Amino acid sequence: MARPVVATFSIAACDLEAAQWGVATQSKFLAVGSVVPWAEPHVGAIATQAYANPRYGPGGLALLREGLSAQEAVDRLTAADEGSAQRQLGIVDGEGRSATFTGPECMDWAGGIAGPCFAAQGNILVGEETVAALAAAFEATAGQPLAERLVQCLAAAQAAGGDRRGQQSAALLVVERDGGYANLSDTLVDLRVDDHADPITELGRLYEAHRLLFGKTPRTDWLELDGDLRAEVEERLRGLGYDGELEDAFTSWAGAANLEERVDGATQIDPVVLAELRAQ
Question: In CATH, what number is assigned to the domain containing residue 92?
Fold first, then answer.
């Protein structure tokens, strides 16, 4: 039986200032997010593909946790794997050091580029310009949130040619210690498009929805919930069937709208939440 080929392009990367690590990937392969991306805060990010060895994910993170560098982890993983000639691997460690590996039997075009805080790689591509676009987009978007940068990297790589077989699935994984839901999860973003004609565009749409529900507006930009604005919010909530004390009504509505991560009492209001309430 033929083995599945996770022929794809990917980028493993980190933002040391934000203490975030992540992977973005796209492939002509069903549910690429179930195989390629792995990440752990302050440890590293790993992309495993081609005739993918999924054990490179947890195994590589374990090596990084022990203190090995990205290159040392790549060397250790591939040396112990009889099938490494058909593997492709990208690693960024907890210090931003990076390494990429392409086995000599990976299908053309295949290769990778490693730089500060990123490792970009791909196989069965139109050409090396796809991987070059991943690297260039990452470097050009410095200063933006890591998740946004990674989505832009995928879009740039696809525009440069992408997987020569076409598109099917895409995924985005970003981790940050206690940065996820309710500050009780390390998973900041975990989005997958498993089967779609235009998976990168769909991934971008999902990320925008994620930002709406789980993004954080700087507290300095929140509005005081008093005077006319307070009266407006109370009226809108009553119109939606949320009566009673403002804080209770506001909290109940926000929970039903999946906006609870953007609410903190009823003395101030996130402008994003206000816009959503007005749109109801």
Answer: 3.60.20.10
